[in-house]
TrEMBL record:
Domain EAL, chain residue ranges per copy: 23-280
Shown residues within the full chain: 423 to 704 of 706
Protein name (Swiss-Prot/TrEMBL): Diguanylate cyclase (GGDEF)-like protein/PAS domain S-box-containing protein
Amino acid sequence: AKSQGKARYEVFDRRMHAAAVRRLQIETDLRRAVANGELRLAYQPVVRLDTGRIVGFEALVRWEHPEHGTILPGDFIPVAEETGQIVQIGRWVMDEACRVLAGWQLSAPRGDAPLTMAVNVSANQFLQTDIVDQVDQCLRKHGLPPGSVMLEITESLLIDKAEVVAETLRALRALGVQLHLDDFGTGYSSLAYLERFPIDVVKIDRSFVHGMQDEPRRARFVAGIAAFARSLGVGVVAEGVDSPAQPALLRDLGCQYAQGYLFARPLPAEDAERLLGADCIA
Ligand code: C2E
Ligand code: CA
Ligand code: CA
Ligand code: CA
């Protein structure tokens, strides 16, 4: 039994070692990723449920690694957050997303509200940069109407340093930038944050949307969030919409916007721009 236990530890050690090596490799390679132009953005449309029209996009970062191919954000953003590389990556993402949006707004002017772009900002990135100044400069540089840029933050940002964070959020809002609370419903005190912070829109996490058409309890949960948000004047986006049964159901439950594989996967800029030509995609 003793030798068996030892063998098990060795397997565990080797796995830990492999994970550590992989992490170190990501960290080293990531250092040149921005400089070498290895990052790119994919764009997923956000659809208005009553008209079926695209109102904007969410920018999602990808890393085209020269040897390993496409790496998804879940595999490098956490590392970048720990090492501080997220600051440089975040700066690139913000600039690129704004540059692309400005081009789309010019080529596809709309009578109603301007096309929007949502950018994810992780907690360390938010806390380690002068985000207000960065966003302000980006808007000016690309000549964007401030209301067309949205920042997606998560509850983890709101847990600590609440005073400083609330002040920064108010400054961003004063610029005209909209604030979205991502993965809503998955944290510990989602409802309390809505009361305490200036949030414009909540994005209902896809774990509540997935399969909701067959799970009455899950649908009630979505309905509750939507009703609560509406009573506070906060908008609602449903994430992870992947079934044809969901758009009508979500609309009836009070969600205004939706995003998910049913409409489109995150797309390269050219494909996203082509989608914009369609009158209605839902
Ligand atoms: P998120 O902000 O919740 O982004 C939504 C994720 O759900 C994306 O994964 C998207 O591809 C995926 N998704 C969209 N529709 C569906 C669907 O119908 N079904 C399913 N199963 N999944 C769907 P992705 O691109 O891998 O991004 C993962 C996370 O990485 C994001 O979660 C976000 O937290 C983070 N992230 C992405 N880009 C950036 C960035 O530029 N900066 C920062 N700080 N974080 C980012
Ligand atoms: Ca997001
Ligand atoms: Ca999300
Ligand atoms: Ca997420």
